[in-house]
Hints:
Blueprint: H1 2-5, H2 25-35, H3 41-67, H4 75-88, H5 92-98, H6 103-118, H7 126-142, H8 146-165, H9 168-196, H10 203-208, H11 213-230, H12 232-243, H13 245-248, H14 252-271, H15 286-300, H16 305-318, H17 323-329, H18 335-354, E1 365-367, H19 371-376, E2 381-383, H20 390-394, H21 413-419, E3 423-432, H22 446-451, H23 459-464, E4 465-472, E5 477-484, H24 485-488, E6 496-500
Parallel strand pairs: 1-2, 1-3
Antiparallel strand pairs: 3-5, 4-5, 4-6
Helix pairs in contact: 3-4, 3-6, 4-15, 4-16, 6-7, 6-8, 7-8, 7-9, 8-9, 8-14, 11-12, 11-14, 12-15, 14-15
Amino acid sequence: MRNFSEGHGFVYNVGGERVEGFTSLFWTILGAGIYHFTDSIGPVLMLINIVVITYSIYKYLLFIQENQPYGSKLTVPFQVLFASLIVVIPGFFSWTVIALLETGIWCSVLSLLLLFVLKNTGRSKISDEIYFCSLIVILILIRPESLLWGLFFVSARGFKVAYDTRNIRASFYQMLPGIIIYIITISILITWRISYFGFPLPNTFYAKVSGDKLHNLLYGGFYLYKNFLHNPLLLLTALLVLINIKAISKSYLLIILTGFFGVTLFIPLYTGGDHFGMGRFIQPSLLGVYLLLVLLIFQKRQLSLKEVSALVLFLSFTSQNSWYESILFRSGPISHEFALAQSGRSKSERLNKFFSYEDDGYPEIGVLTAGGSAYTYLGKTNDLLGLNNSEMAHFEEVGVSSNGPKNHSGFKQEVFFKQEPDIFFLSLEILENDDPRLYEPLTIGEFSREVFKSIDSNPEFENEFDAVVISNLHLDYSIKTFASEDFLATLDVEDYSYKKISYK
Length: 504
């Protein structure tokens, strides 16, 4: 966002290659626009997420009020149960608001499109077409999964006509404006990507998603399993859908919502999901899923407001990672992600000061967690997992498995030796000079060793890189890490010294 806002284009390092290391073009451009006016971009992005999520929940409650699926007397209990489910299982607000990602606007656009097709009468005005097509354009610009979601929403519009009239031609004409906009938007976007970046999809897709469909299916199945454990309401929804197939087939509303739920589950199975806690892929769809769940619950038993209150109270104290635990202990499944970003920034600030005496400029650092480091570090940051490194993401390494930890399998040793960063954060410690651990063997974490595919046992690595303690003679702290021998040879002896150490 910052580099684009400052006129450098879509680059990770100023002056570096053009790379689409972000998932959402829409969110990146929006953030760059905000950054043009203020450096305090975080609070503004959070405010945007709060507004769009609040509006989305309001639209669902209004839809329930206007449609009254089970009569006016049950509207309030229905609304209370729907709104409460959003809160009692933690994760929704963490990912759609607090994370400052595009998941908030993504959730909102999915919600608005779903509610539009649910209210579809089969007879639309020009204003309706403009509204629907505008949302399809925004949808496609937000995330790559929009390729599937766009087809779902366009098809859902035509399905209403086919469901009511069995007129296939009329159904096609109902879908036609959306089909045209869908094709045009995707064509323009892909053409622009190829001409600007050289590839049709974001770099995040090539670096994270495996080409092995069975591999993705297995990972995706485990991803859903974990999310069913975290949020049993997803499992309950799936079971109620299976039990009520016959009743669902007689209701346009339930058919569309069931299809929406099906797409929500299919995407992780196809892509393999991701490694983040609390189901980041699923959270933006939860409002629609909960609407389906409450409809199915009330179809079986029309609950009173007292019964709804008791159910909500029960769920809030029995779900895993309950909201009150997160508040009391200030922890949660995604708190680690924020800690990583903060740690990266903090270390980079110290590295900036540490290498400010280097005559040849700041050394290039090769990192695993790239976001926080690159945002603060003044030198070049090499994203070794390929999100912001096109050569790494697209290189097919012969004889070495491309599999690794989920979303962390993009590292290629051959590309690493070709690019050879000055400093390699296979392990990094920043310690005070009087710290007794300073010259102890450098420890490589098991996760880092797995991600970097045991590169420390590669003879070429042993010849070109050393585990060292580098000291700045003007400061009271040193760094323990891996550095290339070529870089170590350039250090100015008047400002720096280094000592080789062992590693384990």
